[in-house]
Amino acid sequence: MLTALIICAYLIGSISAAIIVCKILKLPDPRTQGSNNPGATNVLRIGGKKAAAVVLIGDGLKGAIPVLMAQYLDTGLFEMTLVAMAAFLGHVYPVFFGFKGGKGVATFLGALFALNYLAGLSFALTWLFVAKVLKISSLSALIATLLTPVYFYFISSSLNATYVIGAICLWIFYTHRSNIQRMLSGEEGQIKS
Asked: How many Cβ atoms are within 10 Å of 114's Cβ, its own excluded?
């Protein structure tokens, strides 16, 4: 059953909300515009707040739905984190879009809320606080990501599940390597109010 859940989670994660929303709204393909990233932040640049909000919700649901399915089937927390990782990897390496996907933060956040709403809320509040102070979306995501394994362990007390969450968080740093380079050179764009 776990194998089927992992495959299903990966396939759900592979559905790109950004590409679908941009196609429906007749916006440019997000893989060819702005940061070339099919995620909510890039869609915000090319399509505005409403389009970005739909993408954000869609990407979050891709993480949450597989975890909720696993929960419904009475799967343990460690197994649910593996399902969350599969959805995240589907977003980053989508089978339907040539294995070139987004950076995975919204999908991870959706999965985190489904795993434990307090862990999801801790991530979201950290992101909001850092974004308000420093006004750099990617830095806010990275700081929230860095702290999430700590939050998750204290909330869940499960070391094995926290290892999986930690692995996803390391992967998020990997997907943000170009952002990190731009931050180091002072070229990363700020959040516009």
From this structure: 25
Q: What are phi and psi of 88, to 5 degrees?
A: -60, -45
Q: What is the pLDDT, as a whole number, of residue 37? A: 85
DSSP 8-class letter at 15? S
Interatomic CA distance for residues 153 and 122, integer angstroms: 12
Of 85, 77, 75, the C-alpha closest to 111 is: 85
Q: How far apart are alpha carbons 191 and 171 in whole angstroms?
A: 23
Tokens coding 20: 């679908």
Q: Is 145 helix (H, G, I), strand (E, B) or coil?
A: helix
Report residue 67's pLDDT band, with 50, 70 and 90 as the boundaries.
very high
CB atoms closer than 10 angstroms to residue 56: 21
d(CA 45, CA 32): 12
Backbone φ and ψ of 22, nearest 5°? -65, -40
Distance between CA atoms of 160 and 81, rounded to whole angstroms? 9
Residue with tokens 């709403």: 117
pTM score = 0.93
Residue 149 CB partners (closer than 8 Å, separation 6+): 162, 165, 166, 169
The residue type of 167 is: A
pLDDT tens by residue, 157-189: 999 999 999 999 999 999 999 889 988 888 777
Q: Write down the mean pLDDT value for the chain.
A: 93
